[in-house]
Structure formats: C-alpha cells, structure tokens
Write a structure and sequence with these properties.
The structure holds 2 protein chains of 2 kinds.
Chain A: E1 5-14, E2 17-27, E3 32-36, H1 43-51, E4 58-63, E5 66-67, H2 72-77, E6 79-82, H3 94-104, H4 111-120, H5 136-148, E7 154-158, H6 166-181, E8 185-189, H7 193-199, E9 202-207, E10 210-216, H8 217-224, E11 227-233, H9 241-244, E12 247-251, E13 254-259, H10 263-274, E14 279-285, H11 289-299
Chain B: H1 2-17, H2 19-41, H3 53-84, H4 88-91, H5 97-123, H6 134-158, H7 162-178, H8 191-197, H9 201-214, H10 221-245
Helix pairs in contact in B: 1-5, 2-3, 2-5, 3-5, 3-6, 3-7, 3-9, 5-6, 5-10, 6-9, 6-10, 9-10
The chains are: A alpha/beta, B mainly alpha.
C-alpha cells in the first residue's frame, strides 16, 4: 500500500542553520504517528516542507504517493495541517472561514461536513462569532476545523494542544482518535510527551535536523525507559558503586533510581539505608516517554 | 478554478466588510480635493480649450483614486496576512501562484474601480461633461489598476512591517501620483519638468484616462496605453516570478 507520507533524503538550510540534515521517513496509512524533538530540532521545518510552506534544498516528499512539488495539487488535497501558531483572519466568522477554506480546496457545497466538524469540536454555538471573539482554546479548535474541512486522508497537527485547557484537550483527542479510527493518518508533534505516549503507535525523534530514534512507542519504552523509585532523604548520602549504577538522577531533596523488576526495590532501599540514608518519603513511577526522550537526546 | 474564485471572493469580501475605510474614505478625500482645488483655481486655470478646471480635475481625481486604492488593496491585504500569519490559509490549499496573483490583482482592480466610480458619482453635482471615448476610460482603469495592484502585490510580499509598506506608499506611489498631472496639464510646466513627467508612468495613466472624457490629452492615448501596457507586463512578469519562487512566502 502507498505510504501516507514518504520523505527521502530531505535537507534544508537556513543560512548557517542546518534545519534538516537528511531526513528519511515513511508513515503508513492509518498510523497515529508522533514526531518529537526539542525546540529547533526541525519538526516544523519538516512539516512545512511537507505542506509546501517551505522548499527543501534536496530530497523528495510525498503525500499519499503525490510529490509535494511536481504534483502539489493532489498532495495538498490529501493533507490537512493544523499550524503551530494561533493564527486567524480577523475579518471573518468561524463559519465564513470554513466556507472559504472549503472553496480554496475546490469544495462548493460543504455545509453538512462543516456542521459536523463544528459539532465535534464543540464550536456550533460559535459558528457565527468573529474569530477575534473566541478564546485561545476555541481558536485552536477552529484551526483544527480548518485543517479538516476538505476531509484530508492525512492530518498533521503541529502542537495542537498548546494553550488548550484539560477538558478541551480531551475532547480534541477524542475527536482526533475517532478520525484515526475512521482511517485518517495522523501525524502529531507535541511537547506533551504523555500525549504522544498515549496516542501514538510509532514515534520518531528529531534532533538537530536528524532522526535519532524511530520505533513503536512500546519498543521505545522498553528499550529506553525503566520503572523508577524516588526516595527523599533527611540528608545527602554517598552511594556505593553498585547502587550508584542504578541512579538515574538527583531530584529535589532525594534520588531517583531505575529498576527492571519490583524485587529490586527492596535491594535499593536496603542499599540506601546501609549507606546511612534516612528515607522520609518514596514514590514509584512507571516507564514513560519523558525518560525515553531525555535518554535519547542525551545519547545523541 | 474554484480555489481562485474563492480567493477572489474572499479578497472582495475583505475590503467590502470595512467599506467605510476602503471605499467611502477615499471617495470623500477625492471629493474634498475637488471642492477645494476647484473652488480656488476654477477662474484662474483652463487646462484645455473649452474645458473648465473643475471638469478637468474630475478624471484626474477618479484615476488617482483608482490607482491608489488598487495598490492599497493588494499590499495591505498581503502584509496583514503575513504579519498575522493567516497567509498560511491560502498557501496550504492547492492554489497555483498564477491563480493567487490573478485573485489579488482582480480584487484590487475592483476596489479601485468602485472607489473611482464613487468619486465620479460624487462629482456629478459639481460638473457636467460628456464622455467622449468610454473605451479608453475602461482600458486605462483596468490596465492602470492592474499595474498598481501588481505593484501592491510586490510591496506586500517584500515589506516585513507596516512601516516599510508606508514608505513604499508615501515615498513612491504618492509622489508619482501627485506629480502625474492630476491637478494640472503638463503643458503648463517648464520644458524640463515636462520632459521629466514623461518618465512617470502615472502621467500616461492619468492623461490617457482623461482623453476618454474630453477627447484631448497631452500625449496620444495610443502612446499612453503602450507605456501603461508595457509597464504592466513588466510588473506582472516580475510579480509572477516572485510568486513562483515563493519569495518571502514559502521559506
């Protein structure tokens, strides 16, 4: 089957900054795919290259088999992008904006689908409100609506939940999950790593314009994260070498250890006490994407 | 094609929604020029034989309004979209750069023509004249408007902030318009300044447009239309090249 997205050898330089340094990536149809990386890693440049907002120096990008340069009309018809910035046109209401956006994509009669999107994104009561009158979270949802107006099979969400409160965020994810279940391919960039962990089946991590990790979420967690034990101590201690090897990091007033089996917890606690540590509090943690992210970024 | 039509509609809707600012204000400004200059100079100047000064002034003001508003429409729309970031809404859809250009230019010409028509209607109680050659009026309105609309697209894309656009408008468009013969016939100028005026394309637009009203002009309307057409084609090519390369629009 044709991949939803195929990126091969893409480079992009902005003066002295190598924004993309040879990116190769394929996203299969129907995937919920995460694109993670620190600020300046190249995520937005990659998305911009895919959507035609930026022109790569070399390499090729395809959306549903359509080259984004040679066959840009078909590629753009297949792609919906929710931009990172909270942008809007102050001249128009939500509905006017969606009708215009439909027209840009060649759709004359799109009212039924527009009503459905507005309903799912909880914007029906704001349909005739000017964009300026909406809260930040509503503007964000209106941007999602704009990206969906032409029913693209591939949807790219560039940090869609920035500035959106918890309730609205959950509503947004319920809708995006439904779109994914209906067959849409979703590509998500986010700084909320727990969102990526929960939603994405596969994740790529970018650093300095290169992909430094690409695997299923489960494999990444298995390979790069462990259970954690945080202990708070009455006073600092010096750990013996065997125990120090299990130390992940120092945290405020204590230490964080990593372990694979729960039997190890008793050994760690015993080791801390043997080193003269007085434990005043403790907490267990599951493997999470933050550990994976920090681990991979530090490795590279 | 639907994308082009929608973008054109959106550009027209954009200026229509703020019609006081984009249509009525320029009409009022031009009418004030007409009343003040007409009152002061009516008995002192007769630019063409048989044509009084106020009647002479009206076509110049109409064309000046067409040109300035065509420029203002495309340039302000683009820079606003760039600065607020909503330009992405027209860059993400499958709209070609030619469709993009055509939509912005046609919308700008329409606004210019609406403003010009408004000035003409508002001037009718003060002057009476027959229109000698309506074909020339239409030709210069469309070509002159398209010329300034293209210049507006260039300025809107090039400028990174409103200040730069204001500089473009105040240091280029405004002087060239004011010194183009809107308020005088260039035959009233010394020979040197008559010569200089022939390097100002706005002069040919105003003079040719005025020919459509009176059937007389400072230079042949064929010369004027040739100059304006050449200028428009050159600017259109430059603008299309900028858009094709994605200059300042697509990184």
């Amino acid at each position: 089957m044709t991949p939803a997205i195929r990126i091969a050898g893409v480079t992009k330089r902005f003066r002295s900054l190598q924004a993309l340094a040879g990116v190769d990536l394929e996203v299969a149809q129907g995937e919920f795919f995460g694109l993670l990386g620190p600020n300046g890693a190249g995520k937005t440049t990659l998305i911009s290259s895919l959507s035609g907002l930026a022109r790569p120096d070399s390499g090729t990008l395809e959306v549903m088999g359509h080259d984004v340069v040679r066959d840009y009309r078909a590629a753009r018809m297949a792609l919906g992008v929710v931009p990172q910035e909270l942008v809007f046109d102050p001249f128009f209401s939500v509905r006017e904006m969606l009708v215009l956006q439909s027209g840009y994509f060649g759709l004359k009669k799109n009212d039924d689908w527009i009503d459905e999107i507005l309903h799912h994104l909880d914007l029906t009561t704001k349909a005739n409100a000017n964009m300026r009158m909406l809260s930040g979270g509503m503007k964000r949802r209106a941007l999602v609506a704009q990206a969906l107006v032409h029913r693209p099979p591939v949807i790219v969400l560039d940090e869609p939940t920035a500035g959106v409160d918890v309730e609205l965020r959950q509503g947004l994810w319920t809708f995006i999950r439904k779109l994914n279940q209906d067959g849409h391919t979703i590509v998500l960039t986010t700084h909320y790593l727990e969102e990526a962990e929960t939603l994405c089946g596969r994740i790529a991590m970018l650093k300095a314009g290169r992909i430094v990790a690409l695997d299923t979420t489960a494999n990444l967690l298995q390979r790069f994260a462990s259970h954690t034990l945080q202990v708070k101590l009455a006073a600092p201690v010096t750990l013996p070498p065997l125990l120090a090897a299990k130390l992940l990091r120092e945290v405020a007033g204590g230490l964080e250890f990593g372990f694979e089996h729960f039997d190890d917890v008793a050994d760690i606690l015993a080791g801390v006490r043997a080193a003269g540590g007085s434990i005043v509090d403790m907490a267990l943690g599951k493997p999470d994407m933050e550990q994976v992210f920090v681990g991979i970024m530090n490795q590279n | 094609m639907e994308g082009f039509k929608t973008l054109l509609y959106k550009e027209c809707l954009r200026f229509w929604k703020v019609g006081f600012q984009t249509v009525l204000s320029p009409v009022l400004t031009a009418v004030l020029y007409l009343l003040i200059f007409g009152h002061v100079l009516e008995d002192h100047v007769q630019p063409f034989p048989g044509v009084n000064y106020t009647a002479f002034l009206v076509p110049g003001l109409v064309m000046m309004t067409v040109l300035q508003n065509a420029f203002a429409n495309s340039s302000s729309s683009l820079i606003q979209s760039k600065i607020t970031g909503n330009i992405v809404f027209v860059l993400l859809p499958p709209i070609s750069y030619r469709e993009f250009y055509a939509a912005y230019v046609i919308a700008a010409v329409l606004r210019g023509a609406m403003c010009g028509a408004g000035v003409l209607l508002a001037a009718l109680p003060f002057v009476s004249f027959d229109i000698a050659q309506p074909g020339w009026i239409l030709a210069f309105t469309l070509l002159g408007g398209a010329f300034l609309a293209s210049l507006g697209v260039i300025a809107g894309i090039w400028a990174d902030k409103f200040d730069q656009l204001a500089a473009f408008q105040n240091f280029l468009i405004m002087p060239l318009t004011m010194l183009s013969g809107v308020f005088y016939s260039i035959h009233s100028l010394p020979a040197f300044w008559q010569g200089v005026s022939h390097f100002n394309p706005f002069f040919f637009m105003i003079d040719g447009f005025r020919y459509g009203f009176f059937g007389v002009s400072d230079v042949s309307p064929w010369t004027s239309i040739g100059v304006v057409l050449t200028c428009f084609v050159v600017l259109a090519v430059v603008t299309l090249q900028m858009l094709a390369r994605g200059y300042k629009l697509r990184a």
